[in-house]
């Protein structure tokens, strides 16, 4: 593919920034999706200083209509998404006995439903081309729940299950669905350094049919 596009839903500092840097340094253009337009403009300026291609698009990951609109813009102005990274999440402190029903629904839309919607929006062109990569950011709470972050744990368990289901459905079609499950706190200079984590997303993208992994735990 001549025009390789990485689309990141949930652009921000840390993992998504490092993944964007890794892919753009390897010939990709990046479409960055976030709610904060000023931050997107800052990231675009930073990448342009490094002679890397990046464009920012404002959207709300919890709103299906907003996602549909932004992917139409991306695919119309830059090109079809080659690699999708869903890195949007909602993190609130609330024990399960105190978590409000409405807050759980709001968080689930960001943590899981948005990932489903974004995946379905890039799949048609990937199926047509018979290739593509869909990546998700997972977390320790999917495997080892932390009661104070009950809503996030529900979301990370949900997105992991979604990823595994998509992996089984799509692997025979040469579309790779996979998650990087981060088992610690992202921090520079540790095994959870964002730049080191980004290498794992790149590794997953490079895997060939028959080699696909559905999860890397760090």
Fold and architecture overview:
With 218 residues, the chain is α/β, with parallel strands linked by helices. The chain has a single domain (5-217), classed as Rossmann fold (3-Layer(aba) Sandwich). Helices cover 46% and strands 18% of the residues. The protein contains six helices and seven strands. It has helices spanning 15-24, 37-49, 64-77, 101-129, 150-170, 194-206; strands at residues 5-9, 29-34, 54-58, 83-86, 132-139, 175-182, 215-217. The chain has a seven-stranded parallel β-sheet with strand order 3-2-1-4-5-6-7, sandwiched between helices. Strand 1 (5-9), helix 1 (15-24) and strand 2 (29-34) form a beta-alpha-beta unit. The model has no long low-confidence stretch (mean pLDDT 96).
Any key phrases for this structure?
6 helices, 218 residues, Rossmann fold, 7-stranded parallel beta sheet, globular, 7 strands, 18% strand, alpha/beta
Specify the CATH class.
Alpha Beta
**Number of DSSP helices?**
6
Report the uncertain regions.
Answer: none
Structural class: alpha/beta
- Helicity level: 40-55%
N-to-C order of helices and strands? EHEHEHEHEHEHE
Q: Strand order across the biggest sheet?
A: 3-2-1-4-5-6-7
What fold name stands as the CATH topology? Rossmann fold
Q: How many strand units?
A: 7
Q: What general form does the structure show?
A: globular
Question: Averaged pLDDT, please?
Answer: 96
Can you tell me the CATH superfamily?
NAD(P)-binding Rossmann-like Domain
CATH architectural arrangement: 3-Layer(aba) Sandwich
Note the main sheet.
Answer: 7 strands, parallel
Instruction: Tell me the fraction of residues in β-strands, as a range.
Output: 15-25%
Radius of gyration: 16 Å
- How far apart, in Å, are the first and last alpha carbons? 30 Å
Q: What is the total domain count?
A: 1
Quaternary assembly: single chain
């Amino acid at each position: 593919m001549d025009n390789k596009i990485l689309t990141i839903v949930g652009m921000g500092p840390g993992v998504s920034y490092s993944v964007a840097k890794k892919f753009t340094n390897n010939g990709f253009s990046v479409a960055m999706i976030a709610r904060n337009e000023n931050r997107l403009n800052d990231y675009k300026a930073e990448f342009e200083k490094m002679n890397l291609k990046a464009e920012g698009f404002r959207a709300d990951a919890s709103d299906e209509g907003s996602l549909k609109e932004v992917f139409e813009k991306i695919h119309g102005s830059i090109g079809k998404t080659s690699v999708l990274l869903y890195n949007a999440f909602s993190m609130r402190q609330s024990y399960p006995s105190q978590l409000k029903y409405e807050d759980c629904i709001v968080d689930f839309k960001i943590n899981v439903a948005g990932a489903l919607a974004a995946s379905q929006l890039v799949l048609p062109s990937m199926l047509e081309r018979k290739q593509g990569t869909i990546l998700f950011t997972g977390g320790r709470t999917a495997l080892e729940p932390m009661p104070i972050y009950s809503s996030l744990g529900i979301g990370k368990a949900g997105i992991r299950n979604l990823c595994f289901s998509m992996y089984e459905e799509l692997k025979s079609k040469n579309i790779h669905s996979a998650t990087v499950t981060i088992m610690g706190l992202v921090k520079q200079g540790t095994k959870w350094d964002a730049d080191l984590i980004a290498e794992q997303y790149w590794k997953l993208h490079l895997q060939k049919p028959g080699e696909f992994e559905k999860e890397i735990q760090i």
